[in-house]
Amino acid sequence: MTLRTATIALLVVLLPSLAAAQAGSRSVPRLPEPAGLAEVFQRDELTGLALSGLDPVTFFLPDGPKPGQTELQVVWAGVAWRFASEANKAAFVASPDAYAPRIGGYDALAASQKRIVNASPAFHVVRDGRLYLFRSEDSRARFLSDATIPARSEEAWLGLRAELVQR
Length: 167
Hints:
The chain is of the alpha+beta class. The protein contains six helices and four strands.
């Protein structure tokens, strides 16, 4: 385990406890305890933000995506997620897998070819209720042109994500 990974894991575990202690008797909502850093989501290396700070819930809304607010932030799966509203934050906390991008936020077309390629939230699609990201408009268009690609991407991701696990 690298020092960085150990530090992140420690913060994920300790920060909610510290916040609860500072809040006194007030109840602080928490995500379930992490089982481990089993899956790595693409994130900004400098800020630790997922989706370049965009609210993951807003990708599923007609006017989305929208930028998240600094004060509305949750750490889940070792990544910081920001939200445009308390309601969106609550929805994500209740069901993060429903809103987090598939394939760890990496290019879904590349994953179908068994490659890990960074993606941009500027190139995205919600297909069958799932958020997929791409590195370019061309990757997005190719993904949409073949109905078999999502299943191939999901299957390949099972093996690819093992290459990203930080121990």
